[in-house]
Amino acid sequence: MAGKRQKTEDIVSKLRQIEVLQRQRDGIDQHGSAQMVPGDPD
């Protein structure tokens, strides 16, 4: 049981890291796209 609980905690921590990275990436994308829109030919 202890091993199972440890594995679950590892998965949860990884999911939290991914969530943080996605938030950071989304923020960068929002700022980047806002800056790129004026010079974008499309």
What does this structure look like?
There is one protein chain. The chain has 42 residues and is an all-alpha fold. The chain is built from 1 helix and no strands. The chain is rod-shaped, with a radius of gyration of 18 Å. It starts with a helix and ends in a 6-residue tail after the last helix. The mean pLDDT is 77.
Q: Give the rounded overall mean pLDDT.
A: 77
Radius of gyration: 18 Å
Order of helices and strands: H
Shape: rod-shaped
Let me know the largest β-sheet. none
Strand content: under 5%
Distance between the termini: 56 Å
Structural class of the secondary structure composition? mainly alpha
Helicity range: over 70%
Q: Helix segment count?
A: 1
> What is the total tally of β strands?
0
Give start-end ranges of low-pLDDT stretches: none
Region (Disordered): 22-42
